[in-house]
Every structure is written in structure tokens, then in C-alpha cells.
Amino acid sequence: MLYAIDNDGSKKEALPDSIAYCPHCETEMIPKCGLINIWHWAHKNKSVDCDYKSETEWHLKWKKLALSFNCDVEVRIGDNIADILNNNSKRIIELQNSSINTKSILERCENYKTKGYKVDWLFNLENKYKNDHIKFTLHDDYIGFRQKWRKRQLSFLFNSDLYPLYGRVWLDINKDLPLFLVKKLYKSGGGYGEYADRNSPISTVKLW
């Protein structure tokens, strides 16, 4: 995580030799301040029972970028910890790098919905794109895509008319390329959408 809590209850970024505590389980954290990865906190006791799980560099980079747009990160909302909260648009962005079960997706979405939030999901599909497991086709007025293996989790974020149900769905296919915004998802796992600026989910945007 990017922030832990110091003895005064204030948010604290990771610094060498500093001490702080997890804001969720209150156990001691240790700073990870290497030369390669973004500085962050990790639980001192790896076996501790905490809602907050370890993250990849991909997660941390997105959170760092979100902070530069005055978003909040690692915010507890009801029973869940939201990755990013865009206060300007009252929108949550969930960063998903690994697989996640359907129950967890729906529980998170319904929890945020009852609190008055839209929830965007941003999926890391860099490996899929690199291995040609997802391909994009440019048409006159839209961009189609298809997946070699259907990502089943995506389907639960769309309604019976195949349009986004809780908020927008973004695909991150390469750090040097735009994001892909899914506008419609077919049952086959393919669909269509458009490319968007990489800052789009975390910048101030009008709700639809």
C-alpha cells in the first residue's frame, strides 16, 4: 500500500527506516524503499489476517498517478477497500490485475452502488495483448475486439442489453498505448469500444 498510519493517526508515505501501522488491521508495517519499485508499505507479519492484500507494481503506478490528479487511494467504503476514489466525479476505480471470482465482483459493485458511487473497473490485459490473446480491429466508426479465451469476469459488469451496468470498463493493454474503453460486450467475450487517454479514469470526467 502507498499509505500507512503513524502514531498520530496521520497518513504516512513509505520512507527508509520509518515505522507505521496498517489503517485496516492496525498491525505494524515495514517500508519497502528499493531502487526499482515504487516505495510502499508491506505488513511486517505476512501471515496477518487483513482485508488489504499485497499489490503489484502495476497497482502502485496507477495509484501514484491517481494521487497526482487529487484522487484518494486505499479508501475503506463499507466492507471494501476502494483502490481509487475520484472525489470530483464520485466514482470509484477498481484495479484488477489477477483473476477475481464473480461473487467478489458483484459484492463490491453492490456495496459501492448503495453508497452512491459509480464503479469503474480497470483490467490489466498486458500479457493477453502481448501474446495475441486479445485483438482489436478498426472499423469506420468503432473499434471491435475479440479474445482468444473469454474473460468471464467481464460479463458480470454488463446488463442484459450488454451495456455497462455499474460504471465503465477499461482495458490496459500496454503502458505505452491508450486505454481501451469497452462500450458493449457480447456473450462471446468480444465487443466494441474506443481508445481513450490513459488518464481518463482518474481525471475529472462527467458521469454518464
Q: Give a quick account of the main beta sheet: strands, pairing sense, barrel closure.
A: 9 strands, mixed
**Contiguous helical run count:** 4
Q: Give the helix proportion (percent range).
A: 10-25%
The averaged pLDDT comes out at: 87
**Which structural category fits the helices and strands?**
alpha+beta
Q: Can you tell me the number of structural domains?
A: 2
Across the major sheet, the strand order is: 6-7-8-9-12-13-14-11-10
User: What is the chain-wise order of helices and strands?
Assistant: EEEEEHEEEHEHEEHEEE
Compute the number of strand runs. 14
Which residues sit in consecutive blocks of at least 5 with pLDDT less than 50?
none
Strand content: 25-35%
Taking all Cα atoms into account, the compactness measure Rg is: 18 Å
The end-to-end span amounts to 31 Å
* Shape call: globular
